[in-house]
Amino acid sequence: MQLESLELIRESSFDWARFHAYRVFDESLQRFIIGRKSYVTTHPQQLDLEAAFKEIRSCFSEGFDDSSANFEEKVRSQFEVASEESKIVFANVEFLWAMPMGNISPRTKRGYAKRWFTDESEVVTGERYFFGSPHTIANPGLWYLMNKYWELIALLRVLNLVASDEEVVDIASAKKRIAELSYAAIYEGAAKEGHFAVTKVCGVHSALLHLSAPDKFESIISENHKQQIAKVFEHVISDRPEIKCREQKIRLIRERLYDDYGDEGDPDRKHRWFFYLSRLKPLWVGKSAASLKIASIDDEVRREQAALDYSEVEGGKEATIAYRVYRSAKLVTEAKKRDDFTCQACEFTFRKQIVHVHHLDPLSERQSPKQTTLDDLVTLCPNCHYLAHFWLRKSNRFKKIEELLQKLRSIYS
Ligand SMILES: [Zn+2]
Ligand SMILES: [Zn+2]
């Protein structure tokens, strides 16, 4: 694990606490984990968390069957003989599982806590505790609900370890530990042994990672979504091969894409749910492995053309950092003229339009800005251009114009 990547420094001035989920997360850590008192119920007593986690382990974790039988029925029978204290602790854990999720209604969230307690006044009330979007952090798929047993085990594991850690003395140290444990569970599988062992991928780890350090970790809880985003936009950060941590990759991708995709008029989108913008989501969501690659090359080609259109003469605006290229629109036009507005591979031409200009080594300038010359550019039709990027990903030899054109021509002969 790259510890530096977990340093919980504030890197933006974004005010997360404006949204209830972040405030409630901090408050419940302070009250429940540090102060050992119930957050979601009104019971005033000091809680023996060690003893409660132990009892929950034996009645819930060790005695649970992971079948599709009704969760409510199962959990009620499991806690039938459990102490009130264990029920209070479980209610707080279950609250933390549901609290940040937008598609579990506030009423349902309160309903979980009310399960154990018949007196209305025993459970806190109000939007301060039970809320929906925009105060939540994500809308997980049905899998989050279907997988509730494993998600709760994963959460119990993290909270149990944090509560028994002597170095956890305040909100900051609690968050740091939570982030470390969640990160290790996702990337090192370090949750498969010991008490509350988890054998499934759990969204709650990503939720905890984000809540602990929202500036560092995106509000994406789906493992699948993280995979797709990292894959489809990998070309956006291909000049930074030293970054190994996927969480860091996704954050850098977001920063770079922001220049191009903006926030659709909602400035909060820069930090929250950026990848779910209506302009961005279709590029990556629900893609099969094969179409992920197509989407990725598509975006790369589109991005290259946008950068090539950038004109030093007009406005002097710098090309976006996502595809920083230092060349003028004038040079692009010169390349097209030189090639007579004709694809140099298949000879496609149409009214001096449609054709693209491809940079033979698109990455070279990103590593060390150098002046592009006409020799670096070649006119290609959109089809050949797409294929050029396809082959370029397979081998660097297609940076040579002869090799590239020969390969492209071989497709048509
Ligand atoms: Zn062509
Ligand atoms: Zn290109």
Identify the notable features of this structure and list them briefly.
2 strands, mainly alpha, elongated, 17 helices, binds zinc ion, nucleic acid binding, 413 residues, 3 domains
How does this model look, in words?
The protein is an all-alpha fold and 413 residues long. The chain is built from 17 helices and 2 strands. It folds into 3 domains: 210 residues, no CATH class; 62 residues, no CATH class; 98 residues, no CATH class. Helix 2 packs antiparallel against helix 7. It starts with 19 loop residues before the first helix and ends with a helix. 38% of the residues are buried. This is HNH nuclease domain-containing protein. GO terms for molecular function: endonuclease activity; nucleic acid binding; zinc ion binding.
Task: Give a short summary of the structure.
It holds the Pfam family HNH. The protein is mostly helical and 413 residues long.
